[in-house]
Write a structure and sequence with these properties.
By secondary structure, the chain is α+β, with helices and mostly antiparallel strands. It has helices at residues 2-16, 56-59, 115-122, 136-139, 159-168, 172-182, 187-202, 224-235, 238-244, 314-328, 369-399; strands spanning 71-72, 87-92, 97-102, 131-133, 156-158, 248-251, 260-263, 275-283, 287-296, 299-308, 336-337.
């Protein structure tokens, strides 16, 4: 019975050995919690629904130091400024280094900074010279008091004019028209789907779009880290950089469509030295949000913040304070990195099924695909060995009755 005993030992060893992960198998761990320096706003913000939790693997994207709902700054760095924003990130767009953050992966409501994801998704695919006619459906679900570019039903506008209206005036009307133009046969919803596809491509796992404009919608979230990924993708495009840095744009008249001018609204342009552009946002649910980029001494830093209040500094003042803090850090300072689209999904940290780190026991071993394939091969081998053994035994018995 030696063969039987060997086969049983092999199977037992395989069944009790934890599976080896394909590629990197670094287990996701939470960084020690350090409270973020915060300013208490003069008036408490309105109650908001609790955001969904972030999984351990997604929380550690970009580095385990970022796996915290609290503060992450380089060792020995000066303390980050106190702000009302509930989450923020400062990152180097060129090197991809994350210089610091507060709750970088926490789900937050985006408001109009979601329009940058629309640009990242559709700008590569829409011809700026294409002319689009505005339909009633593009405008019928918009509050006239919301941020609008000023397009009219039946008006014909170039895609380039619509991008300028989207980024300079935060036009919700422009967002609807662009999403429909870029959504193919699925229309506006196709544009929203393209936004979610682009978020997945960039590795922005905390981001989900429900509306193209960033107006509140069910299940619409992002994170400060994801916004830094999106900013890096958009600022890599020369056309986006040109649009976002434009102060005043003239929208030309077309037959039946009057022309008008639009002015860049509420950014740090002309107010913070080196600003290359920025995008603001606000809803009652999201509070103030901001994504901006500035350049100093050859460094381009992005600041993203969510959940800020209008006082005492507002999102623009808080963004300026965080940029000052980031530029004061040495060039090699880092607490993590911005992942790139070409990184494979299995290179993300893999969460444990059971872990003493999280106080869970008794959940059993976790098997990877490689281990399952190996186990299957071992079972087949063991069956073949056993079959050969019994066949030889039967042959001996027939030869020696």
């Amino acid at each position: 019975m030696t063969v039987v005993r060997i086969s049983a030992v092999v199977l037992s060893a395989l069944l009790t050995t934890p599976g080896a992960a394909v590629g990197s198998s670094t287990l996701a761990a939470s960084a020690p919690y350090v409270p973020c320096p915060a300013v208490k706003p003069p008036a408490p913000p309105p109650a908001a629904p609790s955001p969904p939790p972030v999984g351990p693997a997604d929380r550690a994207v970009g580095g385990e130091t970022l796996a915290t709902a609290g503060l992450a700054i380089p060792a020995g760095a000066s303390m980050a400024p106190a702000v009302t924003a509930t989450s923020w990130v400062v990152a180097d767009l060129d090197s991809g280094a994350v210089l610091g953050g507060c709750g970088p992966h926490e789900h937050r409501t985006p408001a109009s900074v979601q329009k940058m994801l629309l640009a990242a998704a559709l700008m590569p695919h829409l011809d700026p010279a294409q002319v689009v006619e505005v339909t009633r459906a593009d405008l019928q679900d918009l509050d006239p008091a919301s941020s609008l570019m000023g397009v009219v039903e039946g008006g014909r506008y170039s895609v380039e004019s619509l991008w300028l209206g989207l980024l300079l005036k935060s036009g919700n009307d422009a967002a609807n028209v662009l999403a429909r133009a870029g959504g193919g046969t699925a229309g506006r919803q196709g544009g929203v789907q393209a936004m979610n596809d682009e978020a997945r491509r960039l590795g922005a796992h905390q981001t989900h779009a429900a509306t193209p404009s960033g107006l509140d919608g069910p299940g619409q979230y992002t994170s400060a880290y994801d916004l830094a990924l999106i900013a890096r993708a958009t600022y890599a495009r020369a056309d986006f950089r040109r649009y976002i840095a434009t102060r005043v744009a003239e929208i030309p008249a077309k037959p039946g469509t009057p022309g008008f001018s639009i002015t860049h609204d509420n950014t740090l342009l002309d107010h913070y030295p080196g600003t290359l552009g920025g995008k603001t946002g606000f809803t009652d649910l999201a509070r103030q949000t901001y994504v901006g980029v500035a350049e100093r001494n050859g460094r381009r830093l992005a600041v993203t913040l969510l959940g800020a209040e209008t006082a005492p500094l507002g999102s623009l003042g808080e963004a300026a304070a965080l940029l000052d803090w980031g530029f004061a850090l040495p060039p090699d300072a880092s607490v993590g990195r911005l992942v790139t689209p070409d990184e494979k999904k299995h290179d993300r940290p893999i969460a444990e099924v059971s872990s003493e780190r999280h106080g869970q026991t008794g959940a059993g071993p976790s098997f990877s695909v490689a281990a399952i394939l190996g186990l299957s091969a071992a079972v087949v081998l063991a069956v073949l060995v056993l079959a050969a053994f019994w066949r030889r035994r039967a042959t001996r018995r027939s030869a020696n009755p």
